[in-house]
Amino acid sequence: MRAREADRGVSTTLGYVLTLSITAVLVSVLLVGTGQYVDDQRSQVAERELSVLSERVAARTVDVDRMVRAGDGANAVRVSVDLPRTVAGTPYRIEVSEPSVTTPRTHDITLSTGRTGESVTVTVRTGVDVESASLAGGSVVVVYDPAADTLSFESGDDVSPAVAPPSAFAAAPGGGA
């Protein structure tokens, strides 16, 4: 009888070890699968947010270009674009390209994240040249300099939130904006 009692002890221990092993494998598979799902979702969210933000920057760039051409390029223009500093919890960069040789006033505005590797590019056509730029994500100011006859981008975090100083509006023809 003693041999059978020893076998029972081994069976209980073996069953316990097998149960723990199977549980550990299942938990590991769930964690790996869930982690990949979360990464995929984060990547999709980052791409959507970058797409929206790039359209906002492009729209403000075209707005400034229109204002400059409507005013014959005589006045300085500054328009702020309020953007978040992060996308899907990660910082991003705003890159404005040099114009291509074939289309001199066509520029690409690219927003990209470092961690997720997402990138969105929007092409903008302007009547005024745009300086290339590379900025950290966050608020941006689109600036027209009449002396250089170019549009440029500045970090909005370093600039006051005002679009233009009040004296610029007083100097405008007709006394209004």
Features:
9 strands, disordered C terminus, 4-stranded mixed beta sheet, alpha+beta, 2 helices, 5-stranded antiparallel beta sheet, 177 residues
Contiguous runs where pLDDT drops below 50 for at least 5 residues: 159-177
Beta-strand share of residues: 25-35%
The percentage helix is: 40-55%
> Quick one: how many beta strands?
9
Main sheet makeup:
5 strands, antiparallel
Mean pLDDT: 81
Overall radius of gyration: 29 Å
Order of helices and strands: HEEEEEEEEEH
The structural class is alpha+beta
**How far is the N terminus from the C terminus?**
102 Å
Pfam families: DUF7266
Keywords: Membrane, Transmembrane, Transmembrane helix
What does this structure look like?
- It contains 2 helices and 9 strands; from the N terminus they run αβββββββββα.
- With 177 residues, it is α+β, with helices and mostly antiparallel strands.
- The chain has one domain.
- The strands form 2 sheets. Strands 2, 3, 4, 5 and 7 form a 5-stranded antiparallel beta sheet that branches. A 4-stranded mixed beta sheet has the order 1-8-9-6, covered by helices on one side.
- The termini are far apart.
- The C terminus is likely disordered.
- Pfam families: DUF7266 (PF23928).
